[in-house]
Design brief:
This protein has 489 residues and is of the alpha/beta class. The protein has three domains: 272 residues, Rossmann fold (3-Layer(aba) Sandwich); 127 residues; 48 residues. 47% of the residues lie in helices and 13% in strands. Strands 4-3-9-10 form a four-stranded parallel β-sheet, sandwiched between helices. A four-stranded antiparallel β-sheet has the order 5-6-7-8. Strand 11 and strand 12 form a beta hairpin. It is elongated, with a radius of gyration of 28 Å.
């Protein structure tokens, strides 16, 4: 099977053919001006899955994700909080790591910061000036000369007239052309600045990622990713700067952009004050639920956030947990507990289905990382596992059947891990924001009686669920020849 990725540059799916080993993967990361919100997490969970899947396909990956720790909004936040811009960046960078760890997002190989890349930024600007691609009008600013790069607009598919129509020149700017953009900005009072050949100042936004990417991955990269709002002008400008400086094309082989997370008709954003932070959400919902919510749609699909959508994601997570629990229950079932005359056919069919599941899972993921389709196939398998477990089919040749089931469980766990899920062993653990009540003896005995009735009706998975639910509340059941007893853990 061949991995195909939708490339924003060509507007079509292309076979993935990296430039070399390792795969060089860059993602535009956080501007740490506040705690990450749910829109940020959608991007980073998606990148985590892409990175995991590339590893699963046998590629070594060097994954780089930057922090833009020098920014107007960080400066404004520092002024409002009465601290330095650097202190703001440190605080909310720490907030990012805390949120992503909770969502089981693997750390990047390196996190370059703008404040630590100033020399590389100045080097690129000097090279662009020397090549005629940039100019310093003498006021401490430096601008990229868009007219020097004839293919400008190739990523966003905008014509020169389209770009010109949206261009603006603000007071104090000395541009040759309204389309030109800042590479270096002259220092202003109460703002961080660094010395440069053009005077004290700080870098423009776009040159930062070009320099950080080049510093960590070289002149050309395989995958460049980010939100759709970055296509123009940020990523368009990165291409112009990088290819003008290195004289190598393409700067990035595959451009990957995720669908944005909306609130109503607007993008979720700090600037619009319509956001919910990751940490706030995780107070009410299990991390598996939030992660599954993101992966239940194709990554390029724009999504409108609602509380109801997380309720649905919780139910979907329960399906996965129930399927896994059913497999584990079958494996634990002794042969003598089987229904007399049980046929091994259901187990053989389930094991065969697990093998087919693996093929179809990879088929979905190879088609531009289609996690929604991959998950749908996991749900189908989970339902079948629950159905088979209710039949209690283990009987004839139990050793062979148990081995087949163990292989099926291993397959299921492996596919789930590719998507980055650390599934709880019980659906009860998905509860967030609800305090577990201490159970009295009468309640426990009633639950045991209900479990006994379910076992009499051979509804084994439902009976097992009661045992697991009691266990999460500190109650251990022990089955013996004289019935079921209980104790507090």
């Amino acid at each position: 099977m061949t991995l195909r990725i939708y490339n924003t540059l060509s507007r079509r799916k292309e076979e993935f053919q990296p430039l070399g080993d390792p795969v060089r993967f860059y993602c535009c990361g956080m501007t740490p001006k506040f705690h990450p919100h749910l829109g940020h997490a959608k991007l980073f969970v998606t990148m985590d899955v892409i990175r995991r899947y590339l590893g699963e396909k046998g590629y070594r990956v060097r994954y780089v994700q930057n922090f833009t720790d020098v920014d107007d909004k960080i400066i404004a936040r520092g002024l409002s909080e009465g601290v330095s811009a650097a202190a703001v960046a440190r605080r909310y960078t720490d907030g990012y790591f805390h949120s992503m760890e909770a969502l089981n997002v693997q750390p990047a190989d390196v996190y370059p910061r703008v404040s630590q890349t100033i020399s590389g930024i100045i080097e690129m600007i000097q090279g662009l000036i020397a090549g005629g691609n940039a100019y310093a009008p003498g006021n401490g600013d430096v601008y990229f000369r868009v007219a020097s790069f004839p293919s400008y607009g190739k990523l966003s598919h905008r014509t020169a007239d389209d770009v010109l129509a949206g261009a603006r020149v603000t007071v104090g700017e000395e541009k040759e052309d309204p389309r030109d953009f800042a590479l270096w900005k002259a220092a202003k009072e109460d703002e961080p600045s660094w010395p440069s050949p053009w005077g004290a100042g700080r870098p423009g936004w776009h040159i930062e990622c070009s320099a950080m990417s080049r510093q960590e991955l070289g002149d050309q990269i395989d995958i460049h990713a980010g939100g759709p709002d970055l296509i123009f002008p940020h990523h368009e400008n990165e291409i112009a700067q990088s290819e003008s400086f290195t004289h190598k094309e393409p700067f990035a082989r595959y451009w990957v952009h995720i669908g944005q997370l909306n609130v109503g008709s607007e993008k979720m954003a700090h600037s619009l004050n319509n956001f919910t932070t990751v940490l706030e959400t995780l107070e009410r919902h299990h991390p598996v639920v939030l992660r599954l919510y993101y992966l239940s749609q194709h990554y390029r699909t724009p999504v409108t956030y609602t509380d109801e959508s997380l309720v649905l994601a919780r139910k979907q997570a329960e399906h996965l947990i129930e399927g896994r629990s059913a497999l584990a229950s079958l494996i634990a079932q002794p042969a003598q507990d089987a229904v007399k005359g049980s046929s091994p056919a259901p187990v053989r069919e389930l094991a065969s289905m697990a093998s087919d599941l693996s093929l179809r899972f990879f088929e979905a993921m190879d088609d531009d990382f289609n996690t929604a389709l991959a998950l749908s196939r996991l749900y189908v398998f989970s339902r079948e596992a629950v159905r088979v477990s209710q039949m209690r089919p283990i009987g004839h040749d139990p050793q062979a059947q148990h081995e087949a089931l163990r292989l099926a469980l291993t397959t299921f766990d492996h596919l789930v891990s590719i998507l980055g899920f650390d599934l709880p062993r019980s659906s009860v653990e998905l509860v967030r924001g609800e305090r577990a009540l201490a159970l009295d003896a009468a309640t426990i005995e009633a639950a045991i009686a209900r479990r006994a009735e379910l076992r009499r009706q051979r509804k084994w998975s439902e009976a097992d669920a009661i045992r697991e639910q009691l266990l999460t509340q500190g109650i251990v059941l022990e089955d013996g020849s004289h019935g079921t007893t209980w104790r507090r853990a």
